[in-house]
Amino acid sequence: MLGREAxxxxxxxxxxLALLPFAALLVRSxxxxxxxxxxxPMPPREPTAQVGPAACAACHPGETAAWSASHHAAxxxxxxxADPGPLRMVGRDGREVDFTPVRAIGVRxxxxxxxAGERGRxxxxxxxxxxxxxxWFDVFADGRQPGEWGHWTGAAMTWNGQCAACxxxxxxxxxxxxADSYATTWxxxxxxxxxxxxxxxxxxxxxxxxxxDAEAIDVVCASCHSRRAELTGAFAPGERYLDHYAPVxxxxxxxxxxxxxxxxEDFEWVAFLGSRMHAAGVRCTSCHDPHSGRVRAxxxxxxxDCHALMVDFAPHDPHAGPVGCVGCHMPVTTYMQRHARxxxxxxIPDPWLEVKHxxxxxxxxxxxxxxxxxxxxxxxxxxxxxxxxxxxxDALARAKAGDASAVPAVIELxxxxxxxxxxxxxxxxxxxxxxxxxxQAALGDALQDxxxxxxxxxxxxxxxxxxxxxxxxxxxxxxxxxxxxxAAARALRASLSPEATNASDYASYLAYNSDQPTALHExxxxxxxxxxxxxxxxxxxxxxxxDPGSPAHLDxxxxxxxxxxxxxxxxxALTKAVDxxxxxxxxxxxxxxxQAASGDLPAxxxxxxxxxxxxxxxxRAWYNLAVIRKQLAKPNTDDAVRRAVELxxxxxxxxxxxxPQ
Length: 661
Known about the structure:
Elements (H helix, E strand, L loop, with lengths): L53 H4 L3 H8 L7 E3 L8 E4 L5 E4 L1 E5 L6 E5 L5 E3 L2 E4 L4 E4 L20 H4 L1 H4 E2 L5 E2 L4 E2 L5 E2 L3 H5 L3 H4 L9 H9 L5 E3 L14 E3 L21 H5 L2 H4 L4 H4 L13 H4 L19 H6 L2 E4 L3 E4 L8 H7 L4 H5 L4 H12 L5 H13 L6 H10 L3 H10 L7 H10 L5 H11 L7 H4 L8 H10 L12 H9 L4 H13 L3 H14 L4 H13 L3 H14 L4 H13 L3 H14 L4 H14 L4 H11 L4 H4 L6
Antiparallel strand pairs: 1-4, 2-3, 4-5, 5-6, 7-8, 9-12, 10-11, 13-14, 15-16
Helix pairs in contact: 13-15, 13-16, 16-17, 17-18, 17-19, 18-20, 19-20, 20-22, 22-23, 23-24, 24-25, 24-26, 25-26, 26-27, 27-28, 28-29, 29-30, 30-31
């Protein structure tokens, strides 16, 4: 499961006007209390014949037996006598309380327990069980506090919207936004036959089965084994991934390393999608038995089934003792404190990237002598020849760091790389340079790419930053692929009404995810741009209440308050934002604007003084500071006027501040 960022949209949130960031009216009605396990959701639906494995076992005993022993079968289960009684954890009010678990999720290397809450919620507790070490541990161990979105009592750990879809069969989330409640139902706990094979009711009664090819099976795996936003909550096996999910790709965030390795809790599929293995036609079931979930052979045998020419490891692996294929090409990252997962980008260890960009190599994961030592050893063993992977990763890493000299290489990747996953990554990395004509031209071409993943990434990269490409985005509102339509509507939302027919997929996506603050923030800012101020404030207040540690929600909420002439409320919101991010000069500047608008000039002067201390080149802050000091007849007004003129020498309003000598 994801922690702090369990749900995220795939691009930056809409920047509403140039005014304010973050406020939290603590609307407690939107932060439901956690119960004692006695209040649960609606009961599961009566399983239909094709859901349960009993309908399959008679004809498929081997597959059923393999599945029965798998982690999929026990992905979620009822409690047994071996499970614990009450768990002592810190509740929403900050006190340790005993909470009664109602179900378990996970098998190894850890088991988590669900606590029933009010209005149909289940929360995933922070106390997790390690069955190998036979000990309890804090699955977060990062200091999360009660009231935070990521705390176990918060929306980030609400099972209904964050975990259930991948731990049950036939889930219907049942989110009721108006009632702030869930009526979640499911056909079966765990990942059962129908979740991967679809509705085989006709086959159970004697008809032909609905077969899935290797590509379709990959998509079934990807539906859970990828970090993504849900667009519909209605995926069925055999359907297109991008009609139901918006994947998080290699992009300017820290989600992935620029060479494609996982960094945050990204699961496997997107990393695999960009690998040479995937490009060569390898699919999930090439290495994994789909029913047991296990690799088809132990150790290097799975790899050598295809790489038979590398039986002699001596020239390839000069280690004193062979470390094996997986050790070098699928390094491990540990998530949730105990869950060691292999990287599926199948990279070649390259300490050069670690030395230059801090991208970890498999070498440094085992050796603590340092990246420079590892690079010298690698060059001694394998030479210093460059590789296409290194060149690509170097370009993307430089672009991520804001190095404009990387732009030509990124454009070349976007236009010419044979792998759609890397053309898509290049589109994402280009977003920081979207004001350049050459980047706009390349993104415009990418909007017409034959692969929908690239069209999706290009539309996401353009977002609201590039008015010159609005005409090129318009046709994508009718694209045959839903994720592309949603990304295009998202990019055009400043000119698309929330009620527009060609924005309906985008509106539906936001409504489906309106139990999470990111979607509420995005929808609220969309409403605000189109003059729905009341609805914008309602959404942004809820976002800030669900995630009170995020200045972004408060920033946009303050904009909405100011638009509604509620300047004192805007100032209160920004005061909380500044408390959360005290070194953000822009927040201080916008707080000053709100304070001035509400009539508190002395407070505005203090805020602006701090803003220019934090950012001495902040031209607008100096101008406003000079204006306010003049009005307050402060003795240091001339200093502010002089600095404002230095930074804005051609601005007539600034020059008007100069007092004739």
